Amino acid sequence: MRYSGWQILRQALGGNRGWKAQWRRPDPRPEYDVVIVGGGGHGLATAFYLAKNHGIRRIAVLEKGALGLGNVGRNTTVVRSTYMLPGNGEFYSFSLALWRDLSQELDYNVMFSPRGVISLVHSDGQRDRFARLGNAMVGRDDHVVLLGRAELRRMVPYLDYDNTRFPIFGGLLQPDAGTARHDAVAWGYARAADRLGVDLIEHCEVTGFDIADGRVRAVETTRGRINAGKVGIAVAGNSGRLAGMAGFRLPIESHVLQAFVTEGLKPVVDHVISYGMGHFYISQSDKGGLVFGGDLDGYASYAQRGNLPRVEHVMEAGMTLMPMLGRARVLRSWGGVMDMSADGSPIIDRAPVEGIFLNAGWCYGGFKAVPGSGVAFAKLIATGEPLKAAAAYRLDRFQTGHLIDEEGTGALHNRH
Length: 416
Known about the structure:
Elements: H1 5-13, E1 31-37, H2 41-54, E2 59-62, E3 78-79, H3 89-99, H4 102-106, E4 117-121, H5 124-139, E5 145-148, H6 149-155, E6 170-174, E7 178-179, H7 182-195, E8 199-201, E9 206-212, E10 215-221, E11 224-233, H8 239-246, E12 252-264, E13 272-275, E14 280-284, E15 289-300, H9 308-321, E16 330-341, E17 347-350, E18 356-360, H10 370-383, H11 397-400
């Protein structure tokens, strides 16, 4: 069924008893042309674009739990393209452009809100860096504005501009960036892929791969063997585990990134605010809760929970930037398992095993990249050729030295 204002009115008058399930729950078939491992944003988007853009119909998405319970539902929902280096910049600009029409494409309201993302300036050196970043973005036809202190203060008067250690000198504003509803993104892609014939197989954990003569033949799962012509791996923090099952290693580590949400408040934070000196970022959800996060926990882990020292660090940064935050009650926190690559940038490439394709290493950029990643990964799987905007995300760059080190911190994952 298609969603519309008329449909909402019709179902309301009928006691909301006529809504249909958003997607089927089929049993796995013995064989598929393409099997996507991972039912998060990247996996579901890939399946949708494989069917929509390339006409492939025999596709299965395997998810060990329920769809959307991984990182796609465990993030702070920020969507932006404030990247400077060649390779990253073109891709995130491409992905941001897809967000603008995503609700119409999926016939599902993903609640994309281009409220503007502001990265704060705290020193002359940081202003120079953001000026270079802004010029690079303008060269890609992105909309960006370098704000002075007085102009910024009129826009967001509730910040502590005169903090003696980190005074605020201005900021870099991307007006058409913002947030989206993470659950709606997962559900929208799932529903749209299902409508194109994709089988979404929930509670189906991959336990191994059948590999013969250097080529993948099948995927072994808790629901039986599934033969596959091609296999795409899009499992975020579990990328290393799946690669190990297939017999190769990846240059990534899995780390926990925490996020927090407060009680519902009246509208106060109109933008997404990024506080670079404390690595703190905050926005306000449509339900009124302040959503914020900070640094990685700093140690490798597969746990979807964090630790109290990092909670304290994030709260300190928030109080330094916005003293009024101390009056809000934090309702809940959660952790996402981030697959941090050795240069802080993702991998969309063929694996060392023929027939297996990788989508991994997204670090902090995973949610905002979902539409672009889906288009790029689908093109690679279907044609064997990379999308031009994602051509730099090669796996062998870690051997050749052609890294995309956006933060300039190398393999120190806790600093990305």
